Amino acid sequence: MTLPQQASAALASEPSLEQNTDRMPDDLIVPASDIFDLPALRASLFGSFPADVSESEIRKITVQTLAEAQKKGRAVIAEAFEADPFASRRTTRSYTWLTDGMVRLAFEVATQHLHRLPNPTEGERLAVIAVGGYGRGEMAPFSDVDLLFLTPYKITPWAESVIESMLYILWDLRLKVGHSSRTVKDCLRLGAEDFTIRTAMLEHRFLIGHAPLAKELDDRLWRDLFDGSEREFVEAKLEERDARHEKQGQRYMVEPNIKEGKGGLRDLQSLFWIIKYVHHTDDVSELVQKGVFRPEEYEGFCQAERFLWAVRCHLHLSAGRANELLTFDTQVEVATRMGYKDKGGRRAVEWFMQDFFRNATEVGDLTRILLTSLEADHTKGAPLLERIFKRKPKVKDGYSVVNNRLAIVDKTEFLADKLNLLRIFEEALRTGLLIHPDAMRLVKANLKLIDDGLRNDKEAQKLFLGLLLKHGNPERALRRMNELGVLAAFIPEFAPIVAMMQFNMYHHYTVDEHTIQCIWNLSEIEHKHLTEELPVASTILEEGVNRKILYVALLLHDIGKGRDEDHSILGAQIARKVAPRLGLSKKEAETVEWLVRHHLLMSDMAQKRDIADPRTVRDFAKAVKTKERLDLLCVLTVCDIRGVGPGTWNNWKAALLRALYRQTRRALEGGMEDLNRELRGTEAKKLLREKLAKWSAADLRVETGRHYPPYWQGLHVTAHVIFANLLREIAEDEIKIDIHPDEDRDATRVCFALHDHPGIFSRLAGALALVGANVVDARTFTTNDGYATAAFWIQDSEGHPYEDTRIPRLRDMIRKTLMGEVVAREAIKPKDKLKKREKAFKVPTHIIFDNEGSEIFTIIEVDTRDRPGLLFDLARTLANQNIYIASALIATYGEQVVDTFYVKDMFGLKLHSKVKRDQIEKKLRDAITEGTERAYG
Q1: Are 187 and 272 part of one and the same domain?
Q2: pTM value?
């Protein structure tokens, strides 16, 4: 029997005015007396009051005694819960019992010792009632204590004194108490006006005081407020839920709110509220007898409740306070507390979060089931769409429309043909109808029918491809199929990535949801909703590609994640088996396999390599080989990046991908000679002369003659014009700076012109790090008359360009650093600490030296943990090794960063010596380690 049921039974059986509070529940994690022995504590406490003791002394002794009991009780519960980390129901009941004991003793002290009233009048009665989650008897370690002080009439001075003394005692115990003082009449009036108050009172539980008054409240609430208003209550709770989901985000967000998020405890509690309000029961198992839930669905309900409450309790205990947000750092701690281990190439936290998302999905399924039963009883109104559009769409034989949803006419007939398990999704897309929850339950309960015979059936393959290609909104079908388990049943290789979390700050969604988001982005491009934002991808689709290949490649591109092997290689092996099974020809399957194997190639080339270097484009063109593959890979890359999460796609990435695509397409269609370095240099100088038409011929000759070939191919003509003006009449000791937004790239461009000297890149990087700027791209060049020109593209800490108002301060701080007024290395140290939530991530360091990727530079790629000041540390280390940095590209993936440097040695040569490369790698690793130790404090 639950605590609410015990209290209700006690109310019915106790004839006395004051409730007997010593009865101990038996559904706790340890015996109740081990947590809070109420009779023993009462005797000990009351026996410790000396004669003629003052009120303040009574309060002091009470708080000391209860604090010791509270500390002991908490320790006992926490220790037992640690030993049985999934025993959440008994744990929440245990915290409730501990809180009940403190509230009851506080009341007894207040009424029997502080404000004793031997002969109370009829109006001097007081009942203390738990409401909300506390009333339901479900408390996490640091849950709020919500109390209702109930009086018969207007509150008396005696009742005010009792309440005040109780609250002071409870506050001194560091309990977070929410309280109200009302009459029965007040409760009815306020409950009628406010559904939040009504919901709190729905779960009221008598604690101590005048029992008949509590019984009167219970009777009046059901008779005068609850009964007959079921539909109104359900609608209010659903509106509240939708607003909460809108605020908190989807259940697939990787840092969910355990209480308020989609599929979280508040959704589960909403089910309890609706069940109690409509069915007048606290016992969900009764809904199995009534046919609302199947036995396996009820088991899913219990499992989800048990799991989510366990997570919440561990979250509170690990934080030492009330905390409902599963941030990255707390996920690691909770996973450990719940006994998860690293295995199969995945961290314990990833296994834990996969279970979390699966349980959150289960809560969503249960909500749909309950609401369907309410619609059938007309307790819940029909969906809004049906109220607006009365006309029902025509459906094929075997289906009907119920409450504007696609329903199944005959279950036996439906299940007789396995293909119907796919056809129902096609019919839903064709008609635009949502699938009726009863139909969903039928499909989910019969997934065993999806066997190898169905998977290899030509008609089934055609149906599945039709869902992707024919109706224009494939993500809707895929998401519903995924939630019901159909997608994993039809493509078993998809099952491991369902609800799989990627434990990093880059990916916002689980792997399956990321895949569906990618496909949604592709359909949005096809619908021409993103033509202005994505001109290249939109043009490619307009000109025509094999859509079958593109959709299947996107569906399978991350299917290899979560194993020890490289997910691109494993994913390609899986695609080789799955693509033919989805009805693709041998040639189409080979292209899908290639796309899955190389789905990161274009993104890596654009973000980690200098696309101004002809060698980069040449190597990429050789890898892609054909325009068909280039087109497919370009669209897939765009969708993949956009599907990572909000804010991941930006103009900077768009500009890089557009440039790489156009140059590669030109090379594939016109030949590699189009990438000739000298030809590009000639074109760049011609453009500059046109832009500087007002300059004299002599000044133009000086400007076009002072730069080496890499300068002309490495920058846009806009930067060439800026540098021409900065270098014009520059003094030998002068530093000139130009700072302007580069709107095409979502960044601020900072151009420097100054006398050349060793370590110039490091000094400039230090100056920018000091002002908190994140460098996303950088290029430095030297002139043949002794000057250095450097262009840095920077963003603020939020990934945005600097506004005009912030640029003067930016310029001033950069100048001070370059003039030596501020020492960058010392000034940066206090600023490079990591935030707590970022410390949970482990990013191994990989350093690669590549002498083949560029004709004249060695490429050093440093893949490591991102932190403030990292670029400066790396650049300073290279400068100390007499390494000249020509350009740097910075690709950030959440907590991971790849800094790529194009370098030469002091003689202008590549780094051919392995001894020298090993020495440089050691110095770079030392700098990373030293900076990481600072960052972690």
Answers
A1: no
A2: 0.83
